[in-house]
Amino acid sequence: AVRLVEDEGVEEAARELQLARGTVHGWWKQVEKLFSFTGHSTSKSLKGQGRREVFPDIPAVVTFMKDVRREEKALTTRGIMSFMWAIETEWVEDYLQRKRSGILALERMVERLAIRHGFTSQKPQTAKKSTEELDQTRAEFALDFWKTHAVYGPEGMYNVDETAINFDMPPARMWAGRGRRDAARIANTSKHTGRMTAVLTIRADGEKLPILFVLRGKLGGRIDTSEFEEYPEGHFYT
């Protein structure tokens, strides 16, 4: 389109391309940026759009945030604000004076900054060991395992996991009439949910074995074969 404008002018190019004159004229005004663009050819923009960062040293803040999480330490809004204060004290003081809500405005700004750079607010998970220590433990276990069980082939190794399944669960909340006339009772229900255990097994060669479902399991108990028709075929029930 820009080449066509060079040859025939904005009016004629817009007519041939069946585009608004303002659109073609806008492209012509950005001709240098268009020719110097180094991004992907299918990109629909020249990049760089969007709201500009207001803090003067965003790369330093983002690096700090990534370093804190890389060390698996708690990254909080207050912690980010303290770092910003340490590297740009005058800017932070001026920002707080200009904003009517003061510290709350800075908190909102930090939260938006974190979201823009790929961070999300999450509930902390406690851990006694770091990721590096867990990786080392896993590697040591793998070496020890293969020293002991190297004689077994993939068809003789099984990974078994038990998963609890709760069913017939009453709703956490429901609507009921105001007052004692409707006490939100549900007839013929129990606060304790039904429970069964699914035993999942897979061989080292990738073969998945049928699932073993344990319902009201009892040592030495018998299987009620009359109930089998109610359950999917291809698995075992006890």
Automatic annotation (TrEMBL):
Which named protein is this? DDE-1 domain-containing protein
